[in-house]
Write a structure and sequence with these properties.
- With 325 residues, this protein is an alpha/beta fold.
- The protein has one domain: TIM Barrel (Alpha-Beta Barrel), CATH 3.20.20.
- The chain contains eleven helices and twelve strands.
- The chain has helices at 45-57, 76-84, 101-111, 125-132, 137-149, 170-179, 197-203, 207-218, 282-285, 290-302, 320-323; strands at 13-17, 62-66, 91-96, 115-119, 155-161, 182-188, 222-224, 233-236, 243-247, 260-263, 268-270, 279-280.
- Strand 7 (222-224) and strand 8 (233-236) form a beta hairpin.
- Helix 1 runs parallel beside helix 2.
- The structure holds S-adenosylmethionine.
Length: 325
């Protein structure tokens, strides 16, 4: 069975946000202030198990745990194990800031985790500290090196490029893909943090501009063939061990290829990152047959997935932290 929306897209990828908490406060992601504990009603391991079973029954086969910071959630290994044990799920991954990876990697791997994406927006410690509002880049780099040692290939690094903040770092970030088998993906800054619109416009840097800066330093990049449904266009610095990718969500929206649905940590399904549309499915988790009720909810929400989202700066009901990137 396949989950097909009204625009003919086959929905296969799930992003499951398991907590609104994060131990970083990245400027592009959320305003200051942080939840100290998960509010009542936050998804449990049992909820995740039911949800993934329902989604997999409909053909959704790739799961990424996110947040907030997923590694602050004690139950993450149980959730990974539940995902890995769901018939039909072929890919279980986590997106993390890496701070807790060394401490928790063994239990995550034992649970079945094989793929990790790290957010790394700067190599320079000062730039990194400003961008994350206090983070230590050495700690993240240590996690990335550990992932390489553990051969969790492909190890992907996500960098959101923001003018006047970390755009001076793009060459150093690209260099990481030359020296190591790392896959650095430059993501266009989306207006998902309710920053003032004029400030956002000033700070926006297109993927084309980021690429120009990288080619200025390394020469022409060589294209690496990728799955056309992937949001990233991928290239290689000639002779590099890894790749550089560009996710140009704003300047070249890829809505026609979008295969994603998101479950927020407070049990809402979001059919599109770039609209405020979301559907409260908490009652389905309480039904006598939650898997069946969630399947119905997924079919309903798939039917509401908009053809495209809006990349214009606008005040959002939720910032990225609460959605799960
Ligand atoms: N805490 C984890 C982390 O740091 O990777 C997972 C959550 S974070 C919201 C997931 C991803 O969303 C990160 O890779 C981050 O770069 C991306 N992201 C957050 N805000 C964004 C924005 N305004 N524009 C583009 N990407 C954004």
């Amino acid at each position: 069975m396949k989950l097909i929306d009204n625009h003919g897209r086959v929905l296969r990828d799930l992003r499951v946000s398991i907590t609104p908490r994060c131990n970083y406060h990245c400027v592009y992601c959320h305003p200051l202030g942080m939840e100290m504990s998960d509010p009542p009603g936050t998804v449990t391991t049992g909820d995740v198990r039911h949800f993934l079973r329902a989604a997999a029954n409909l053909g959704m086969d790739a799961v990424r745990f996110t947040g907030g910071e997923p590694l602050v959630r004690r139950e993450l290994p149980e959730m990974i194990a539940a995902a890995a044990a769901t018939p039909g799920v072929r890919d279980v991954a986590v997106t993390t800031n890496g701070t807790l990876f060394r401490r928790r990697h063994r239990e995550l791997l034992d649970a079945g985790l094989r793929r990790v994406n790290f957010s790394l927006d700067a190599v320079d410690p000062g730039v990194f500290r400003r961008l994350t509002r206090g983070g230590e880049v050495a700690q993240v780099w240590d996690a990335i090196e550990l992932a390489l040692e553990l051969e969790l290939h492909p190890v992907k690094l996500n960098a959101v490029v923001i003018g006047g903040v970390n755009d001076g770092e793009v060459v150093r970030l690209a260099q990481l893909s030359v020296d190591r088998p790392l896959h650095v993906r430059f993501i266009e800054y989306m207006h998902l943090n309710n920053a003032p619109a004029d400030e956002y416009r000033r700070q926006f840097v297109s993927g084309a501009e980021t690429r120009r800066r990288i080619e200025e330093r390394f020469g022409a990049l060589a294209e690496v063939p990728t799955d056309p449904s992937s949001p990233a266009r991928v290239w290689k610095v000639p002779g590099g061990l890894g790749t550089v990718g560009f996710i140009n969500s704003v300047s070249e929206p890829f809505c026609s290829n979008c295969t994603r649905l998101r479950l927020t940590s407070d049990k809402k399904i979001r059919p599109c990152l770039l609209t405020d549309l979301e559907f409260d499915v908490a009652p389905a988790f309480e039904a006598d047959d939650p898997v069946r009720a969630l399947q119905e909810a997924l079919l309903f929400v798939a039917g509401k997935k908009p053809r495209q989202g809006s990349t214009l700066p606008t005040m959002r009901e939720r910032v990225m932290l609460g959605i799960g990137g």
